[in-house]
Amino acid sequence: MHNIHEKALQQELERRILHGLVMEWENALWVLSPPDRARMRKPFFRLKPLKDRLGYWCAERREICLSKDLVSRHPWDAVREVLVHEIAHQFAHEVLGARNAPAHGPLFRKACECLRANPKASGTYPPLDERIHRNAQDNKDRILRRIQKLLALAESKNRYEAESAMTKAHALIAKYNIDLLASHEDRHFVSMFLGEPALRHFREDYHLAGLLQDFYFVFGLWVSAYVFDKGKMGRVLEITGTSQNIKMAAYVHDFVRYFIDSQWTTYNRDKKLNRYRKTDFAVGIIEGFRSKLKAKNRKKGFNTPCDSLVTVEDPLLLAYADHKYPHTRSFRPKVSSQDQTVMTDGRRLGKRLVISKAVTEKGTTQTALLGNKADK
Questions:
Q1: What is the pLDDT of residue 143?
Q2: Residues 6+ apart with CB under 8 A from 8
Q3: For residue 124, what pLDDT is reported?
């Protein structure tokens, strides 16, 4: 009986994944011109064990197949990267006429350009999350390890020592990026999801996204992504930057969210306030931490118009983002009534927030799909 129940759960999960692939296929086409989009016909989708590749496009069966290992062990943004690669194969075959052309030849590369697909995301190429978090031995990762050591020192119970270590870590982040810009060195950018796709996000999520973009040298955008629990497309924060900056921003994102949750549990133990007040509290913490970083930047001599490091713009990152996201629109999250007392209390805590501990190899934002869902 137990095995039957487990099999039914697995079948339902795979059904949801396949439904998500269909919806992501439809979403991926919106980057195309209307005539090209109209020529794309929905394929069949399949999951199966694949030993030597992450996925494939079968023209004879009009089928996109993805590896079960990929969807069971890797997060959705990694799965989606492979999916869009296979959509590019479909586009090259059905729209560009690459029926007898090399599988990864010029027409396929043109399809990848049109769909903003990664032409390498197949075969034995490491999935997105493995590429971001793998251990490299180059100079950039040695700098990241120095930052890790400083953040470990920031765990000191002596408040002044902790503040000093965090300040030095942020100064090293800034120096590394400013030196990189001055060197005109070519840079490789990657994108990853932070948090989970959802139909709605709380106001603090947008404030935290702004903090990361303003102080950690990443470009952030809310993109459409499949929400498994709802079976619909929602939104998720996607950040783009060098792998070193991506890892740093992801760690700060997780650290701040954990800090908010732990502080709220203590703050609200006797008050019994509702979820909206937690948003006020969280926004206060984030804005308090923002004001602290601004003050430290001014003290260190980063006198930019907005007192933030993002204004030391990376032209290559902006050009990459302009190409990756050709169709964007602005929106403002709805703001309900706010409790200024709760927000002020949060801001007070935010000004005392110290980012500490070494950056982990894999943050809580990176969870395997099938394993994550099957445990629920």
A1: 76
A2: none
A3: 86
